[in-house]
Amino acid sequence: MMATDAKEFNRRFIMIVKKEAIVMAAKLTFTITALMLAAIGLSVADIPNLVGNWTGSYEGYVNNIGYTNATNALTLTISEQKGRLFTGNLSGNLSGLGKEVGGFSGVIAWDNKTFYMAEYDLGYDVGTMLSNDTIELLYLEDGKTGRVFIDEFHRVK
């Protein structure tokens, strides 16, 4: 009779454990699905619209020239944006370097604050959305004419 009681106890115990495992798996699946949908929804909804004209100032260092800076010397025009991808032109009067104009393409990272730009002539920019109307670009160019710049742009309204 004791063997029968032990078997019944084991059978009931296994049933309870299976039910709890199923409930826990369902809760975990629901939680993961909800988090994924929330993350996807937030990412799509929060993609910043960069299209428009931006004016900016810079400070930097240029190989064989030295430190340089200027206020309101740059114009950034983002002419088109499709989702996280964008394109446009950057122009400016750089002290000691003359006027420069060039096209670029860019991509906004998943955090919707960081973005990356490849300038068509030379160099790369790493950007940060400081606010809806202010962005910072960190420009990097290697080689004999190597240079770095910190640019801050404000949206023209």
Structural class: alpha+beta
**Integer tally of domains:** 2
Largest sheet: 8 strands, antiparallel, barrel
Provide the succession of SSEs. Answer: HEEEEEEEE
Query: What is the radius of gyration computed over CA atoms, rounded to a whole number of angstroms?
Result: 28 Å
General form:
elongated
- As for the CATH topology of the largest domain, it is Lipocalin
The overall pLDDT, averaged over residues, is: 85
Q: What proportion strand?
A: over 45%
Unreliable segments (pLDDT under 50, ≥5 consecutive)? Answer: none
- Which CATH class of the largest domain applies here? Mainly Beta
**Range of helix content:** 25-40%
In CATH, what is the homologous superfamily of the largest domain? Quinohemoprotein amine dehydrogenase alpha subunit, domain 2
Q: Count the beta strands.
A: 8
Could you characterize what this model shows?
By secondary structure, this protein is α+β, with helices and mostly antiparallel strands. The protein is built from one helix and eight strands, in the order αββββββββ. The N and C termini lie far apart (87 Å). It has an eight-stranded antiparallel beta barrel with strand order 1-2-3-4-5-6-7-8. It folds into two domains: 1-45; 52-155, Beta Barrel (Lipocalin), CATH 2.40.128. Helices cover 28% and strands 51% of the residues. Strand 4 and strand 5 form a beta hairpin.
